[in-house]
Design a protein that fits this description.
Layout: E1 3-8, E2 11-16, H1 26-41, E3 47-52, H2 75-83, E4 89-93, E5 96-98, H3 100-107, E6 110-113, E7 118-120, H4 134-141, H5 144-153, E8 157-158, H6 159-165, E9 170-171, H7 176-188, H8 209-221, H9 226-239, H10 242-257, H11 260-275, E10 291-295, H12 299-310, E11 314-318, H13 322-341, H14 347-355, E12 357-360, E13 371-374, H15 380-393, E14 399-402, H16 409-413, E15 422-426, E16 436-440, H17 447-459, E17 463-467, H18 475-492, H19 496-506, H20 512-519, H21 521-531, H22 544-550, E18 564-565, E19 571-572, H23 575-587, H24 597-617, H25 624-635, H26 644-647
Parallel strand pairs: 2-3, 3-4, 4-6, 5-7, 6-9, 10-11, 10-13, 11-12, 13-14, 14-15, 16-17
Antiparallel strand pairs: 1-2, 7-8, 15-16, 18-19
The protein binds 3-hydroxybutanoyl-coenzyme A and 1,4-dihydronicotinamide adenine dinucleotide.
C-alpha cells in the first residue's frame, strides 16, 4: 500500500510509503483522497497525523509525470480536501519537505518537524513555481518577503529557522511520530484553526521588504522565467481573492511546466543523477576510502585536500620540500578558514579537520593511503616521476589518480607496474566548491578502481561524469574548441567584450575572454607553446593570445589581458587590445565585418555541439546528457538552456 492508515487511540496515522522520496505520484494522490474520506467518515478518529516512511517526508510532485498528461486526482484538489477537513491534520516532517511536499504540509492544520528537517519550495530550480497552492498559502503563514525569498530562490530552510519564521509549529525532541500523535491528541481538544485560505496574507517584515526581494530576484533572473512568475504569483496572493490567486498560480505553473526552460532544467536534474550510474560497475564494490594522499599543494592540490577534509576524510599532502609543504598546509588552512567565516564549519570542526591533515615532503608518508590524487605541474615527465614514486611507496591496492587537465592518463599510468589501478580524477577550480568531477578512464582500468573514483565523487558531494582518454577529456576539449571559435571571431570582426556580452546575454555568468583573464592567460600560452611543434601548419591559428602574453599581459593578475583592470579590479575595454586585434586582422588580410550578437552565440553553440558530437562518436562521453552536465557544471552554461546538446535537440 502506498498510503497506509492505522488508528491509534483516536488518532489516525496516515503513512505515505513511496520510495525513493515519497513523491506525490498518482498512487499517493489517490491514497490521500481515500485517507481524507476515511478519516472524515470514521467517528472514532479525532485527528490525523500525516507522516512518511523511509528517508524523507514528501520531496515534491513526481517530476517524471511532468512530461505526460496529468491524471486526476490533481494535487491541488487533493490538498483542498485536506485543507477542508473538519478534523485537524498534523504533518510530521523528517528529511525534506519540498515542493508539493511542503504544499501538502501547508494544507495540514499543523506542522511538526525533526531538528534536522529542511523545508523548501525548490520549483524555480526546475523552471517552475509551486503549483499546488504554495504561492498562496505560504504568504498566509510567514511574512510576505520571507515567502517570496523562499519561492524565488528555491532555497530550503532548516527546521529551526522554519520555526522562527512561523512555518512550523514545533520541533520534536524525541520520536517524531509519537510526538506528532501526542500533538494531534492535544489539537483534537482545541477548536479547529481557520484554514490558511481563510486567513489574510501576512505583512512584510519591514516596509518595502517585499519589493526589495522582488528587485533582487528580477536582477538575478537573467532570462529565466520562473523567478519572475514567482514574483507575479506572490503579488497575486496579496491582491486577489484566494480562489482567483490559486487559479492564476495553476495557470502560471502549467505554462512554465510546458515551456522549454522547465524541460531543460528537468533534463539536467535527471542527467546529473544518471551521470554517476555506470553499467559496468553494477555489483562492483569500491575500495575503502578513509585515507587520501594528495601530491602537490598548489591551487588544485590544496583545493582537493580541503574538499576531502570537509567530507571527513583524512589527508596527507606531499610537496617537493619542507617549504613547499608548509605553503601547501597554509593554503589548505586558508580554505578551511574561509569555510569557517562563511559559517560552513564550526571552530571545533575546523580544528578536527586540520587534525586529520598532514603536509609532508617524503613519499613514505603515503604508505597507508587508500587513494592518492596527483596535482603537480602539468608536465608529463614530472608526472611520470611522481607516479614512479607512488608505485614504490603505496600498497598494491591503493588507487592512483591524476588531476591532469589535458595529458594522456594512460601514458601517466605506464610509469607504474600496474596501470590498471590508475585513472584520472579531473577536478575544477576551486576544487572544494565546483561540483563536477570528470573521471577519466584509460582502457584496462580496473572496475574497482573506477568504482572508487565514483564513490569519492559521491563522498565529496560532487557529480561524477565518466570520460575517456583524449586531449582535454570532455570539458577542456569542448572548451578549447569554442574558445578557438571565439578567437576566430576576434580576427573576423568581433571584439572580446562583444563576444562576452553575447555569452552573458545567453545566460553565461561570464564570457570566455573575461574568464580567461580571471584564470590567467599564461596557462593556455604554456600549453600552446608545448604543442607548437606538433601543430598542423595548415590549421588556422590565432596569435592574439600569444601577443598579449608576450607583452606580459597575463590577465587580471597583471592588470591587463583581453581587458584592462583598474584599481577596483573592474574589467574595462582595452584600446591596446583592440588595436592589437585590428592589427592582427590586417596582418592576415581579413576584412573585418561586425558580427551580430545572435551570430556570435550561434557560432559558439555550433562549435560546442560539433565537438560534442565528435566526443560521442569517439566514445569519450557515454551520452549526450553527460556533455550537458559537464558544460553546465564546469563552464556556467545556463542550466535553464539544458546544455549545448539539449539546446541542439540531441
Ligand atoms: N520526482 C521524481 N523522482 C525524484 C524526485 C521527484 N520529485 N526527487 C528525487 N527523485 C528521484 C531521483 O531522480 C533519484 O532517482 P534515481 O535513484 O533513480 O536516480 C532518487 O529520487 C533519489 O534522489 P537523489 O539522488 O537526488 O537523492 P538525495 O538524497 O541526494 O536528494 C532530494 C533527495 C533532496 C529529495 C532530491 O532528490 C531533490 O531535491 N529532489 C527534487 C525535489 C524537488 O524539486 N521537488 C519539487 C518538485 S516540483 C513540485 O513539487 C511541483 C508542485 O509544486 C506541484
Ligand atoms: P600549481 O602550480 O598551483 O601547483 C602545483 C604544485 O605541485 C606546486 O605547489 C608544486 O610545488 C607541486 N609539485 C611540483 N612537482 C612536485 C613533485 N614532484 N612532488 C610534489 N609536489 C610537486 O598548479 P595547479 O594549478 O594546482 O595544477 C596542478 C595540476 O592540476 C595540473 O596538472 C593542472 O593541469 C591540473 N588542473 C589545474 C586546474 C586549474 O584551474 N589550475 C584545473 C584542473 C586541473
Amino acid at each position: 500500500m502506498t498510503v497506509h492508515i492505522e488508528t491509534r487511540d483516536g488518532i489516525a496515522l496516515v503513512t505515505i510509503d513511496n520510495p525513493p522520496v515519497n513523491a506525490t505520484g498518482l498512487a499517493v494522490r489517490q491514497g490521500l483522497c481515500e485517507a481524507v474520506a476515511r478519516t472524515e467518515g470514521d467517528s472514532a478518529v479525532r485527528a490525523v497525523v500525516l507522516a512518511c516512511a523511509g528517508r524523507t517526508f514528501i520531496a515534491g510532485a513526481d517530476i517524471r509525470e511532468f512530461g505526460q498528461p496529468s491524471k486526476p486526482p490533481h494535487l491541488p484538489d487533493v490538498l483542498a480536501r485536506i485543507a477542508g477537513a473538519r478534523k485537524p491534520w498534523v504533518a510530521a516532517i523528517h528529511g525534506t519537505a519540498l515542493g508539493g511536499g511542503l504544499e501538502t504540509a501547508l494544507s495540514c492544520h499543523y506542522r511538526i518537524a525533526t531538528p534536522d528537517a529542511a523545508l523548501g519550495l525548490p520549483e524555480v530550480t526546475l523552471g517552475l513555481i509551486p503549483g499546488a497552492g504554495g504561492t498562496v498559502r505560504l504568504p498566509r503563514l510567514i511574512a510576505a518577503d520571507h515567502a517570496l525569498e523562499m519561492i524565488a530562490s528555491g532555497a530550503s530552510v532548516p527546521a529551526q529557522r522554519a520555526r522562527e519564521m512561523g512555518l512550523i509549529d514545533a520541533i520534536t525532541g524525541g520520536d517524531l511520530v509519537s510526538d506528532a500523535l501526542a500533538f494531534a491528541r492535544a489539537a483534537a481538544d482545541r477548536p479547529l484553526p481557520a484554514p490558511l485560505d481563510d486567513r489574510p496574507p501576512r505583512p512584510e517584515t519591514a516596509a518595502g521588504a517585499f519589493n526589495a526581494v522582488a528587485a533582487k530576484h528580477t536582477k538575478r533572473a537573467r532570462g529565466q522565467r520562473a523567478p519572475l512568475a514567482a514574483i507575479e504569483a506572490l503579488r497575486n496572493a496579496r491582491t486577489l481573492p484566494v480562489p482567483e490567486a490559486l487559479k492564476a498560480e495553476r495557470a502560471l505553473f502549467q505554462t512554465l511546466r510546458d515551456g522549454v526552460q522547465s524541460k531543460a532544467l528537468r533534463h539536467i536534474f535527471f542527467a546529473e543523477r544518471a551521470a554517476g550510474r555506470v553499467d559496468r560497475l553494477e555489483g562492483i564494490a569500491p575500495r575503502p576510502l578513509g585515507r587520501v594522499g594528495v601530491v602537490g599543494g598548489g591551487t588544485m592540490g590544496a583545493g582537493i585536500a580541503a574538499a576531502c577534509l570537509l567530507a571527513g576524510l583524512s589527508v596527507t599532502m606531499i610537496e617537493r620540500d619542507a617549504g613547499a609543504a608548509e605553503a601547501g598546509r597554509a593554503r589548505v588552512a586558508g580554505i578551511l578558514d574561509g569555510a569557517l567565516k562563511r559559517g560552513k564549519l564550526t571552530p571545533d570542526a575546523r580544528a578536527a579537520r586540520l587534525a586529520a591533515f598532514a603536509a609532508r615532503d617524503t613519499y613514505e608518508a603515503l604508505a597507508d593511503a587508500d587513494l592518492v590524487i596527483e596535482a603537480v605541474f602539468e608536465n608529463l615527465d614530472v608526472k611520470h616521476a611522481v607516479f614512479a614514486e607512488l608505485d614504490r611507496v603505496t600498497r598494491p591496492d591503493t588507487v592512483l589518480a591524476s588531476n591532469t587537465s589535458y595529458l594522456d592518463v594512460a601514458a601517466i599510468a605506464r610509469a607504474t607496474a600496474n596501470p590498471a589501478r590508475v585513472l584520472g580524477l579531473h577536478f575544477f577550480a576551486p576544487a572544494h566548491i565546483m561540483k563536477l568531477l570528470e573521471i577519466v578512464t584509460p582502457e584496462g582500468v580496473d572496475d574497482s578502481a573506477l568504482a572508487t573514483g565514483v564513490a569519492l565523487a559521491k563522498r565529496l558531494g560532487k557529480i561524477p561524469v565518466i570520460a575517456g582518454v583524449c586531449d582535454g577529456f570532455i570539458a577542456n576539449r569542448i572548451m578549447s574548441r569554442y574558445r578557438r571559435e571565439a578567437e576566430y571571431m576576434l580576427e573576423d570582426g568581433a571584439l572580446p567584450w562583444e563576444i562576452d556580452a553575447a555569452m552573458e546575454s545567453y545566460g553565461f555568468p561570464m564570457g570566455i575572454f573575461r574568464m580567461q583573464d580571471l584564470s590567467g592567460l599564461d596557462i593556455s600560452w604554456a600549453m600552446r607553446k608545448r604543442r607548437a611543434a606538433t601543430r598542423d601548419p595548415a590549421e588556422r591559428y590565432v596569435d592574439i593570445g600569444d601577443r598579449l602574453c608576450e607583452a606580459g599581459h597575463f590577465g587580471q593578475k597583471t592588470g591587463r589581458g583581453y581587458y584592462l583592470y583598474g584599481e577596483d579590479g573592474r574589467a574595462q575595454r582595452s584600446t591596446e587590445t583592440e588595436a592589437l586585434i585590428l592589427a592582427e586582422s590586417a596582418r592576415k588580410g581579413i576584412a573585418r565585418q561586425p558580427i551580430p550578437e545572435s551570430e556570435i552565440m550561434a557560432r559558439l553553440l555550433a562549435a560546442m555541439q560539433d565537438e560534442g558530437a565528435r566526443i560521442l562518436d569517439e566514445g569519450i562521453a557515454r551520452r549526450a546528457a553527460d556533455i550537458d552536465v559537464v558544460m553546465v557544471n564546469a563552464f556556467g552554461f545556463p542550466r535553464w538552456k539544458g546544455g549545448p546538446m539539449f539546446a541542439g535537440g540531441a
